[in-house]
Design goal:
By secondary structure, the protein is of the alpha+beta class. 36% of the residues lie in helices and 29% in strands. The protein has a seven-stranded antiparallel sheet, with no helix packed on it. A hairpin with a 2-residue loop joins strand 7 and strand 8. The longest helix has 91 residues. 23% of the residues are buried.
């Protein structure tokens, strides 16, 4: 038996193919249109990011300029303060150099030693109450020590920067400089450092705690030496040949006990023995 296809059947198949192609083409156009829209959105976002980046770079440049100007102003102000401080210190140095030298009164020598006090405070306590600045050299108000053996005691009541020693009675002392940093001054620091004429002469025992007792022994029978005994330990000679530093400008040339304090230190003079 032979079966023949209906003419309408072929017409339906042809129509179906055309419809499929039309649908595919429509989907493709929609996809392209959708992607183009997304691309436009991304391009707009990228453009906004670039604009924001430009603003950030402008702000960064502005801040850099401000920081550089601030650094310049700070350096300028610091230089001005340093120059002003130097001018003040120079004026004080000139004034202190012109202070009269201690006078020797032989008739009141023993009385003077018995009632010796620090010259700046006029009592037996010396202190530096400024944490950031070094105090000036202070000297005991007593007769010049020029012969014999002299012993005195000092108690550390507040820890800080400190140098204990003596000054020459005949040198022109700059009281604004540290004890031991110029000719005619001998200074022994709390960390055990010994100084004369701005030269470090070595390191010895420390005395860097409160209530520490320092006994100082000035022996002028020979060439002149200064020893220190910390608490109950034996005395150690720190400075020697001290008389060789004197110019012997008079028969009364000798030494005076002195101290230099800074960083809030405080001491008490306990008297001569």
């Amino acid at each position: 038996m032979t079966i023949k296809a209906s003419p309408h059947q072929w017409d339906d198949d042809s129509t179906s193919g055309d419809t499929t192609e039309t649908l595919v083409a429509t989907d493709t156009k929609e996809n392209v249109s959708y992607l183009n829209g997304k691309i436009k959105v991304l391009n707009s976002y990228i453009s906004d990011l670039r604009a924001e980046k430009d603003k950030i770079n402008e702000e960064k440049c502005r801040l850099i300029v401000q920081v550089e100007q601030l650094q310049y102003d700070i350096q300028k102000e610091r230089r001005e303060h340093e120059n002003e401080l130097k001018r003040i210190m120079d004026e004080k140095s000139v004034t202190l150099k012109n202070l009269p030298k201690p006078e020797v009164n032989e008739s009141t020598a023993m009385v003077g030693k018995a009632n010796a006090v620090w010259r700046r405070t006029m009592n037996n306590v010396a202190a530096c109450n400024n944490f950031f600045r070094r105090g000036m050299i202070d000297v005991l108000e007593c007769p010049v020590l020029r012969e014999g053996i002299h012993k005195w005691r000092i108690r550390l009541e507040r820890v800080g920067g400190i140098r204990l020693g003596v000054i020459s009675s005949e040198h022109d002392i700059d009281y604004g400089k540290p004890l031991g940093d110029q000719e005619g001054t001998w200074g022994y620091g709390g960390f055990g450092d010994a100084w004369y004429g701005a030269k470090n002469l070595g390191y010895f025992a420390k005395y860097d705690r409160e209530e520490c007792l320092i006994t100082m022994i000035l022996d002028l029978d020979g060439c002149g030496s200064l020893s220190y005994a910390i608490d109950h330990n034996p005395a150690v000679v720190v400075f020697k040949n001290m008389k060789s530093k004197l110019r012997n400008s008079s028969d009364f040339s000798g030494f005076l006990p002195a101290v230099n304090l800074w960083v809030n230190a405080k001491i008490r003079f306990l008297g001569f023995e």
